[in-house]
Amino acid sequence: MSDERQPPTTWHELTPPESRPNRRFMLKAAVGSGAVLLAGGPSASQAAKALLDEYKPVYLSAGEWAFVRAACARLIPSAGDGPGAIEAQVPVFIDRQLAGDFGNATDWFMGGPHEAGADPQRGFQSPLTPAQIYREAIAVVDGWCTQNKGKAFAALDEAAQDEVLKTLQAGKLGLKPELRDFFSFLLQNTKEGFFADPMYGGNHQMVGWKHIGFPGARGAFLEWANDQDKPYPLGPVAISGARG
Question: Residue range 82-99: average pLDDT?
C-alpha cells in the first residue's frame, strides 16, 4: 500500500513558454480577469526579510532554513506584479509543516513494502517522511552546489539558483530514489504556503489572497462567485476573523 497522492504539477507544466521568465507560475494559473493585485516594492520586501530574520525555525537547521528561504524566493519571486514567497512568509509555513503532521507523515501509511525506484505513477514510495526527505535532499543539493558552483545554494546568485532548481526538477542532480519527491514537495509546499490561511504561518497579512481577489473565510460570497468582470471589493477574512 502507498500514498495515492498524485505528484504536484511541475513548474513548466503550469506556465506557458512566454510566461516562464519570471516564473510566477501558480499566480498566473490562479488569477482570473477580476483579480485584485497587491503591489510589492523594496520596502515590503525588506520588512518581510526582517520578519524572517527574527523567526526561529522549529524544524529546519540554520543551513536548511537558508536553503528554503532562497529556494522559495526563486519559485515565487518578489519582483513582478505582486508579492513573492518572502512577502508571504512561505518559509515559515514550510518549517512549521515539516515539524508537524505533514513532515512526520502522521496520517500516511508508511509500513512498506517500499520500492523507491518504482514508476512515479504508482504513488509515493519512499520509506522516508517528508521532513526526512527535506533534510537529506537539502544536504545533497548544497553539496552538489558546493562541488559544482563553489558555494552552497543560498549563497549563489539568482541566475545560478534558477539553474540548480531546473536541474533538480529535471531529476539530474543525483538524488537517490528515496529523495526524488523533494522538488515536488518543495514546489507544492511553496504554493500552499502562499495561499493557505495565515494561521499556518504563510500568506502573511493575506497577501496571496489579496493578490488574486480571494475572499478567504467570508460567509457571503455566493453572489460574486461567477462575476469575473468585477474585483471583489471587501477584502479577505482569515479563519481567525482577521481582515485583510
Answer: 96
C-alpha span between 196 and 200 (Å, rounded): 7
Which of 95, 100, 104, 113 has the alpha carbon at shortest distance from 132? 104
Q: What pTM does this model have?
A: 0.79
Torsion of CA 53, 59, 61, 64, to 10 degrees: -80
Cα-based angle 219, 97, 216 (whole degrees, multiple of 5) = 15
Phi first, then psi, for residue 88 (nearest 5°) are -85, 0
DSSP 182-227: HHHHHHHHHHHHHHS-GGGS-SGGGHHHHHHT--BT-S--GGGTT-
For residue range 95-112, list pLDDT tens digits in order: 999 999 999 999 999 888
Read off the pLDDT of residues 130-144 as tens digits, 9 standing for 90 and up.
999 999 999 999 999
Q: Which residues is 124 bridged to in the sheet?
A: 3
d(CA 48, CA 140): 28
Interacting residues of 17 by C-beta distance below 8 A, sequence separation 6+: none
